[in-house]
Task: structure prediction
Amino acid sequence: LQLEGRKRWRLYPPRGPDDVLPLFSSQDLDPKELPEPMLDTVLRPGDLLYAPRGTIHQAVALPGGAPSLHLTISSGQRWTFSEYLALLLPRAVDLAAESDAAFRASLPRNFQDYMGVIHVDKAKLKKKRVSFRDMVFNLAKKLITEDYFALDGAADQMARDFIHGRVPPLMPKAVRQRLEEAKKNDRGYDQDSSSAGDGGAGQLTETMHIALVAKGCARLVMEGEAAMLYFSTANSKVFKGEEEQSLPFADHCAPALEQILDAYPRFVRVGDLDQLEKEERLIVANVLFQAGLVVAKHG
Result:
């Protein structure tokens, strides 16, 4: 996005397959290595140029007029199938080892005598190497055919990390003030049922309605017998500048929490929260309210 001045941009096609959707930025390239540009244009204040991730580019400020200033926003660089598989595969191996003795079997005796880079070109070891490769490939096939992939678990891990790293959402002024006041008084997120729903100041009742403060500000993850709600409303504007924020609930609270998340931007009546007793509904609603995750209104 060009903010001030003018800048000449030249975009180039990939030099080869390795230049397509790279995971990391490259070093500066020698202009002599580059093909003809596929786009050569000048941006002025207010102009927006989109380039797919990893597009080779040159940007040169043009003389005269105001100094040139632009803002670059990158997306998707660390949100790829490779990151997902890096979480998925280790867990798949763990699950397979728990239930299949083939994954727990000892490696062949002295296998290091024929496996390794130094043995690649030794013809006399080819038979043993092929046999070992086949054993490994068969185990890899089992990971797929016997469904050891915890697809949802890996997705939850990525979502949890995303929630931790994202900037906090823009929240209503009243919510910001309430959280600042709680922080000033060093109050945490009170899950004590003795005060929940008693009608006192700041307490929600069954007749009130609540709604999530912002789309995507929280993620519900099931961890054993706990329903963990990870949220970004207390995040720093510095990348992961604060500790990961979460609220633990009993697993039977999950349907009510999911109901609130799915309802956004609509409000949900506290008394209508799914599968909870009256006292539990009040606890869940008030904990979320104190944490700044929901706004509330009278019915």
